[in-house]
Specification:
10-stranded parallel beta sheet, 3 helices, 8% helix, globular
Length: 397
Amino acid sequence: MKFGRDGGGGRWSTVLVAVVVALVVAAACNGGDGTGSDRDEDRGAGGNTGCDAEGCACSFEDPCGGPVVCGAGCVEENDPGIPSAGAAGAAPGGDTGSGGSAGDTGEEPEFVYGVDKAATLARAGLSDPDALVPHEGNLIADIPGHTYRDLDVAGWVDIQADGVTLENVRIRVGSALREKWDPPTQAGIWNYGRPSTFRNVEIAPTHPSVDTYGILGSNYEAYDVSVRDCVDAIQVNTNTGPIRVYGGLLDRILWYADDPRQSDGSHSDAIQIIGGSGHLIRGSVIRVGAGPAARTQDGVHAGSFGIIISPGSIGPVADVTVERVWFEGGGYSHFKLGQGGHGPVTPLRILECRFEQYTDNPVIHGTAASIDAAEIVGNTGPGGIPLPADQIWADGN
């Protein structure tokens, strides 16, 4: 381990016409709601990257006449299947608004992520709740390069085109599951590895259960996103590009004793990374819940890990930076490093994080090879004290 401070420390008539036209267009843009059945193919099947006139409740034409879809979007009537993950190695989606695009530092000129916790929490989630327009059913985001904004989505969001942005969107997920997944699963955002941007999105499930996840996929940027009441808030389960998470709040991670995906109860985490490289988590607040001691009934807020890196079936993990993140709550450990037969995660940087509570195990916990190869610098414990050496543990697993 590379020690730093840790380890040892116009006219009126024209105007009137324009206003009427604008109102008509706005009504068209904000319509298009519909409901649909969930007819997915199996999990590994390739599907259409969008839906045609028979498969959608709205058309591809954009009456807004620009790159922004003002509260529109297709709602599935006949789900054509799970789309393919997109081109491997594609860069994360850009953004039509201010505050950065793929490949920049992610920092807004007026705000540096990870410095002010109260400001981070105030920015997390919806930027304008009063602007939201109800959207029934699931939202199929299938228009390349468009921004879907100011929506209150009753179901989930399927990202079925590249370069989609969600902005000021609440996602309630609903009660339906993708039955062809094994086991059946629901998620707030199904990203499938398509380049995407999420800004001021709130994922707040109305029917949270052992099958509820927040964001599934990879190859996206997330700014000031709030996710709560999920088994995993963020899970990187495709390998087409990195995730880059700036600010936001991941909260109330759920645990269940009877979890069909595990033999010993939910392995519930704020962020789980099982493949890919170039991932960045900066300036977020992560609250896993009360920890194992609170696991007296199903659905309690008692997650296992804040961040777990566990290279698995989609390949190794490399080049991960976790910087200026606040970790709160209990759990087995705040940061768990595995190898999964792929060798240590390198480079790995854990920089200037705040571990505001100690956990059952040391707050940073992993294999000796991963710990030794990591750059662990400037982290602090409760009260801002330098993180003690005994809170960084190589356990051989």
